[in-house]
Amino acid sequence: DLYLISKIKSQVVSDNVKVEEPEEYILNQNYPNPFNPVTKIQYSLPKAGFVTLKIYDILGREVRTLVKEMKTAGNYIVELNANELSSGVYFYKLEVNGFNDVKRMMLIK
Protein backbone atom coordinates (compact mmCIF):
# COMPACT_ATOMS: atom_id res chain seq x y z
CA ASP A 1 0.00 0.00 0.00
CA LEU A 2 1.20 3.49 -0.81
CA TYR A 3 0.21 6.51 1.27
CA LEU A 4 1.30 10.09 0.87
CA ILE A 5 1.30 12.16 4.03
CA SER A 6 2.33 15.79 3.86
CA LYS A 7 2.38 18.61 6.35
CA ILE A 8 1.53 22.15 5.42
CA LYS A 9 3.84 24.23 7.61
CA SER A 10 3.40 27.75 8.88
CA GLN A 11 5.37 30.08 6.72
CA VAL A 12 6.02 33.75 6.23
CA VAL A 13 4.24 34.81 3.06
CA SER A 14 5.27 38.46 3.27
CA ASP A 15 6.99 40.72 5.76
CA ASN A 16 3.74 41.36 7.67
CA VAL A 17 1.58 38.27 7.08
CA LYS A 18 2.13 34.86 8.68
CA VAL A 19 0.08 31.73 8.10
CA GLU A 20 -0.95 30.65 11.60
CA GLU A 21 -1.13 27.19 13.10
CA PRO A 22 -4.74 25.99 13.44
CA GLU A 23 -6.74 27.04 16.50
CA GLU A 24 -8.90 23.91 16.69
CA TYR A 25 -9.00 20.26 15.69
CA ILE A 26 -10.56 19.83 12.26
CA LEU A 27 -11.26 16.80 10.08
CA ASN A 28 -12.26 17.95 6.61
CA GLN A 29 -14.39 16.10 4.09
CA ASN A 30 -12.26 14.08 1.71
CA TYR A 31 -11.79 15.40 -1.82
CA PRO A 32 -12.86 14.30 -4.32
CA ASN A 33 -15.93 12.53 -2.99
CA PRO A 34 -17.10 10.23 -4.52
CA PHE A 35 -13.66 9.05 -5.67
CA ASN A 36 -11.96 6.37 -7.79
CA PRO A 37 -9.51 5.21 -6.53
CA VAL A 38 -7.55 8.14 -4.99
CA THR A 39 -8.79 10.79 -2.55
CA LYS A 40 -7.22 13.22 -0.08
CA ILE A 41 -8.10 13.67 3.59
CA GLN A 42 -7.04 16.88 5.33
CA TYR A 43 -6.93 17.44 9.08
CA SER A 44 -5.67 20.16 11.41
CA LEU A 45 -4.08 19.94 14.86
CA PRO A 46 -3.79 22.97 17.17
CA LYS A 47 -1.22 21.13 19.29
CA ALA A 48 0.98 18.05 19.11
CA GLY A 49 -0.48 14.65 19.89
CA PHE A 50 -0.67 10.98 19.01
CA VAL A 51 -2.84 10.79 15.89
CA THR A 52 -4.78 7.84 14.52
CA LEU A 53 -6.64 8.06 11.23
CA LYS A 54 -8.46 4.86 10.28
CA ILE A 55 -10.77 3.70 7.49
CA TYR A 56 -13.85 1.58 8.26
CA ASP A 57 -16.33 -0.21 6.00
CA ILE A 58 -20.11 0.22 6.20
CA LEU A 59 -20.30 -2.54 8.85
CA GLY A 60 -17.80 -0.75 11.10
CA ARG A 61 -14.91 -3.11 10.38
CA GLU A 62 -11.48 -1.46 10.27
CA VAL A 63 -10.05 -1.84 6.77
CA ARG A 64 -6.94 0.34 7.01
CA THR A 65 -4.88 2.55 9.30
CA LEU A 66 -3.56 5.62 7.49
CA VAL A 67 -1.86 7.39 10.42
CA LYS A 68 -0.76 6.07 13.81
CA GLU A 69 2.01 8.30 15.16
CA MET A 70 2.94 11.48 17.02
CA LYS A 71 2.35 14.65 15.01
CA THR A 72 3.20 18.27 15.72
CA ALA A 73 0.62 21.06 15.47
CA GLY A 74 -0.24 21.92 11.89
CA ASN A 75 -2.30 21.05 8.84
CA TYR A 76 -1.93 17.65 7.20
CA ILE A 77 -3.06 15.96 4.00
CA VAL A 78 -3.20 12.18 3.63
CA GLU A 79 -3.66 10.65 0.19
CA LEU A 80 -5.63 7.40 0.16
CA ASN A 81 -5.27 4.97 -2.74
CA ALA A 82 -8.22 2.57 -2.42
CA ASN A 83 -7.33 0.49 -5.47
CA GLU A 84 -7.84 -2.84 -3.67
CA LEU A 85 -11.09 -1.84 -1.91
CA SER A 86 -14.54 -2.58 -3.30
CA SER A 87 -16.97 0.12 -4.35
CA GLY A 88 -19.13 1.38 -1.52
CA VAL A 89 -19.45 3.66 1.48
CA TYR A 90 -16.52 3.97 3.89
CA PHE A 91 -15.92 6.04 6.99
CA TYR A 92 -12.71 7.65 8.20
CA LYS A 93 -12.09 8.51 11.85
CA LEU A 94 -9.55 10.90 13.35
CA GLU A 95 -8.58 10.52 17.02
CA VAL A 96 -6.11 12.78 18.84
CA ASN A 97 -5.89 14.23 22.37
CA GLY A 98 -9.49 13.26 23.25
CA PHE A 99 -10.86 14.71 20.00
CA ASN A 100 -12.53 12.37 17.53
CA ASP A 101 -14.53 12.93 14.38
CA VAL A 102 -15.89 10.68 11.65
CA LYS A 103 -16.67 11.49 8.02
CA ARG A 104 -18.27 9.45 5.27
CA MET A 105 -16.80 8.87 1.80
CA MET A 106 -17.87 6.91 -1.26
CA LEU A 107 -15.66 4.82 -3.53
CA ILE A 108 -17.17 4.28 -6.99
CA LYS A 109 -15.29 2.04 -9.40
Task: Describe it.
- The protein is mostly beta strands.
- The protein has one domain (4-107): Immunoglobulin-like.
- The protein is 0% helix and 55% strand.
- The strands form 2 sheets. Strands 1-6-3-2 form a 4-stranded antiparallel β-sheet, with no helix packed on it. A 4-stranded antiparallel β-sheet has the order 5-4-7-8, with no helix packed on it.
- The model is unreliable at 8-18 (pLDDT under 50).
Quick structural overview:
The chain is mostly beta strands and 109 residues long.
* Biggest beta-sheet profile: 4 strands, antiparallel
Please, how many helices?
0
Write out the CATH superfamily name: Macroglobulin (MG2) domain
Name the overall outline.
Answer: globular
Give me the CATH architecture, please.
Sandwich
Helix content: under 10%
List keywords for this structure.
mainly beta; globular; Immunoglobulin-like; 109 residues
Helices, strands, pairings?
Layout: E1 4-8, E2 26-27, E3 38-45, E4 49-57, E5 62-71, E6 74-81, E7 88-96, E8 99-107
Antiparallel strand pairs: 1-6, 2-3, 3-6, 4-5, 4-7, 7-8
